Amino acid sequence: xxxxxxxxxxxxxxxxxxxxxxxxxxxxxxxxxxxxxxxxxxxxxxxxxxxxxxxxxxxxxxxxxxxxxxxxxxxxxxxxxxxxxxxxxxxxxxxxxxxxxxxxxxxxxxxxxxxxxxxxxxxxxxxxxxxxxxxxxxxxxxxxxxxxxxxxxxxxxxxxxxxxxxxxxxxxxxxxxxxxxxxxxxxxxxxxxxxxxxxxxxxxxxxxxxxxxxxxxxxxxxxxxxxxxxxxxxxxxxxxxxxxxxxxxxxxxxxxxxxxxxxxxxxxxxxxxxxxxxxxxxxxxxxxxxxxxxxxxxxx
Length: 300
What we know:
CATH topology of the largest domain: Diaminopimelate Epimerase, Chain A, domain 1
Radius of gyration: 18 Å
CATH architecture of the largest domain: Roll
Number of strands: 17
Oligomer: single chain
Strand content: 35-45%
Helix content: 10-25%
Structural class: alpha+beta
CATH class of the largest domain: Alpha Beta
Number of helices: 6
Shape: globular
Largest sheet: 8 strands, mixed, barrel
């Protein structure tokens, strides 16, 4: 049996930037162990496996694997998987899709153009959690001074919009570029945890390289098989909670471009939008472009 696959660079309009994604089509014959082996073989931050949906009104079902295990939901696989399926099937690019992920149905809007764009509604709005680490522990694990953690009214916070993250405000762009993740120091605070349950730090600052970026961010996850991620849609979804708490939301539409991957040489651009209603977040979505860079067949 063989399976067609494609490699997409996601959250970029340029090949060999953004976050690479492996998309495996017609994956219904693969079991958990096979999906895990394939994800480790590709050795990308995530691989998405597409298969027929349980609900025939939906576009497909999907399972998402990191090299270290499965995720219930992720951003760049949702964007890249939707674009890849639409391009493979040759249907109209400007349309709505629903992808069945482990977290539940995810609604995706596709937009055509020279480089296709997809945006999805968050399947779960960010929920606040009590931060598991304090400023001193976080600073030590990042090789930064405690005084470089936080800016304005922003302090460390923890949010879950499907996948939990520790959102770490960093004083400026110079400090965030200088951060170096000490995995051993980080894991020492999670003794006895399953590696997949260990939070990843999501660093952010207001200073940016791109003139239209509202935030510059980094995300480290070597305990998940991802030394550093070039673009993390699920973390941007969680980060929406930090923006709401510390910056507030205007009534109606709010939108930000988030840059990531700058310090890896893989610049990425993630669009985060949120709707404010009566002082709270009523809805939010993540969007970005994707470019196909390779295709082939898995021989199994």
